[in-house]
């Protein structure tokens, strides 16, 4: 399958988290991908630790909350665009654009001052996309609902 041509903003899905049609800011200057979440809690289990968090997938309806739980993959110190470093939880989750899905690493952070709840960085893009920075919404998001 060839690379997708994407714009600087697209609608993505995070099917493992039950999230569809989430606007994502595509940022080739960022190494890691990040998701704005609230109420992060690391849960200890006998197996692998889990992280639970709340997500507001609709920025126009903050009353809508999706509660998510995912295996905690790692915890890393990440330097944000403003130069500050913070410790962030990292999860692996499926990421969908159009009719394609692949596994990405996603850091969980407070992006409340940012316009978009999700940022797709270079590692999340890999060799799967070409980016047209002058365009937005190049990918048809309809197939995501079938995931």
Distance between the termini: 18 Å
> How can the largest sheet be summarized?
7 strands, mixed
Output mean pLDDT. 89
What sequence of helices (H) and strands (E) makes up the elements? EEEEEEEEEEEHE
- What is the number of helical segments per DSSP (H or I, 4+ residues)? 1
Low-confidence stretches: none
Class by SSE composition = mainly beta
Work out the helicity level.
Answer: under 10%
Note the beta-strand portion: over 45%
Q: Count the beta strands.
A: 12
Major sheet strand order: 2-3-11-4-10-9-8
Gross morphology is globular
Cα radius of gyration in angstroms? 15 Å
Overview of the structural elements:
This protein has one helix spanning 122-125, and strands at residues 4-7, 9-14, 19-26, 33-36, 38-43, 50-55, 66-71, 74-79, 85-97, 100-109, 118-120, 129-132. By secondary structure, it is mainly β. β8 and β9 form a beta hairpin. The longest helix has 4 residues, at 122-125. The chain is globular, with a radius of gyration of 15 Å. The chain starts with a strand and ends in a 15-residue tail after the last strand. The model has no long low-confidence stretch (mean pLDDT 89).
Task: Give keywords.
single chain, 147 residues, 7-stranded mixed β-sheet, 3-stranded antiparallel β-sheet, 12 strands, 52% strand
SSE diagram, text form:
Elements: E1 4-7, E2 9-14, E3 19-26, E4 33-36, E5 38-43, E6 50-55, E7 66-71, E8 74-79, E9 85-97, E10 100-109, E11 118-120, H1 122-125, E12 129-132
Parallel strand pairs: 1-12, 3-11, 4-10
Antiparallel strand pairs: 2-3, 4-11, 5-6, 6-7, 8-9, 9-10
